[in-house]
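Hypothesis: this fold can be encoded by more than one sequence.
Test: take the structure tokens below, design a sequence, compare later.
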């Protein structure tokens, strides 16, 4: 590499530059060193060590950037904190050094820079969360302007690994009627689906998709639990498990001989796997005798409880925005499908203190309902008997009508 050595300066000189160089502080010293690396110029290891020492000092003094998003550059210099622009630039430049590997600066300095990068990521994440919360509170204080919703959405779009956390902050601190979440959906959904196709609407991991999931889980989980996990249903699940465990070992003798150990042969999980996958007569009987009636009972339970107003409002909004773009999806009632897929189905596969066999039966119910909502068939062929059952299909149609 060509270039000139920079004369190393002490950490105190870096620190002093923040207070005295009128905006040239960090940029005038640290960024000069980091920019040399990006430009392929020669620099001393002391340069990089001074960078690590200084940035660590800033992070320590600034308590990892507390309140940084509200500071002017002068305030940031005086409090030894990085403002947002400086934070992004330092992070970007340090990343450039890290990309070139430890041999460039030595393993010790490289590890120091990796540690700083991690701290800067946490600082950026913390700042974003605090900013989102402050914007939510600003909206609730009476500043209910579209600009605030735009600002919140911008922060969500900037997020990478912390989008779910940001959305959780919004949902937890929203109005009871989830006014902010609905306003965000109204902005996010059209932006997301403008380049999508009817068959893949809102199925990716976009901000809009994550907002829908969080909204339905927040507003629908307790309601769905009341409809699904009543004593009648739980009793039916326990009885089904007993019947499966009692009746199948005798009829699966040949298949069970191939299982390695006696302990594994007697395990309910083994019996269940063979009975529902590898033995067609038993698998079909399982779907007809157990899965279909339990799906009907589950859907009847959900249909018997009053639909919360927030759920209806959310579904109406989602349907309207989707149909504006794809009129051919009007009959699909996509909002109800999303509620089903993102709140009810995940709820079914959670353990809830069940036995292993009961959990496996519930997973089959959840998979069956996913196929019902998506209009697809199951890879586990016996479940298609339950999925295509006329009563199951009618109860699902009733569900979509009630919540829409």
């Amino acid at each position: 590499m060509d270039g000139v050595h920079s004369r190393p300066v002490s950490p105190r000189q870096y620190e002093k530059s923040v207070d005295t160089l009128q905006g040239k502080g960090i940029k005038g010293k640290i960024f000069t060193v980091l920019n040399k690396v990006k430009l392929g110029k020669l620099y001393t290891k002391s340069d990089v060590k001074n960078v690590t020492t200084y940035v660590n000092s800033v992070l320590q003094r600034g308590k990892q950037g507390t309140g940084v998003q509200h500071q002017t550059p002068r305030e940031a210099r005086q409090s030894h904190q990085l403002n947002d622009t400086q934070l992004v630039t330092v992070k970007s430049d340090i990343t450039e050094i890290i990309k070139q590997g430890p041999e460039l600066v030595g393993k010790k300095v490289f590890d120091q820079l990796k540690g700083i990068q991690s701290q800067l990521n946490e600082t950026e994440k913390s700042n974003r969360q605090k900013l989102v919360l402050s914007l939510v509170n600003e909206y609730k204080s009476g500043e209910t302007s579209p600009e605030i919703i735009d600002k919140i959405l911008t922060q969500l779009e900037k997020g990478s690994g912390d989008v779910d956390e940001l959305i959780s902050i919004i949902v937890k601190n929203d109005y009871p009627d989830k006014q902010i979440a609905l306003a965000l959906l109204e902005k996010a959904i059209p932006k997301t689906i403008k380049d999508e196709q009817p068959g893949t609407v809102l199925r990716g991991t976009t901000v809009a998709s994550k907002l829908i999931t969080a909204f339905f889980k927040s507003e629908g989980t307790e309601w769905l639990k009341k409809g699904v996990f009543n004593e009648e249903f739980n009793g039916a699940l326990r009885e089904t498990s007993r019947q499966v465990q009692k009746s199948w070992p005798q009829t699966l003798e040949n298949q069970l001989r191939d299982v390695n150990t006696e302990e594994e042969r007697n395990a309910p999980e083994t019996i269940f796997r063979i009975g529902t996958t590898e033995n067609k007569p038993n698998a079909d009987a399982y779907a007809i005798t157990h899965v279909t009636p339990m799906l009907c009972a589950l859907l009847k339970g959900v249909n018997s409880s009053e639909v919360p107003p927030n759920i209806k409002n959310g579904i109406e909004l989602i349907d309207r925005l989707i149909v504006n773009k794809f009129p051919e999806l009007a009959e699909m009632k996509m909002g109800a499908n999303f509620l089903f897929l993102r709140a009810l189905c995940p709820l079914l596969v959670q353990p809830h203190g069940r036995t292993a066999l009961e959990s496996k039966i519930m997973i089959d119910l959840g998979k069956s309902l996913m196929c019902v909502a998506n209009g697809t068939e199951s890879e586990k062929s016996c479940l298609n008997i339950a999925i295509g059952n006329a009563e199951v299909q009618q109860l699902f149609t009733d569900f979509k009508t009630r919540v829409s």
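The first helix runs from residue 11 to 20. The chain has 20 helices and no strands.
Hypothesis status: open.
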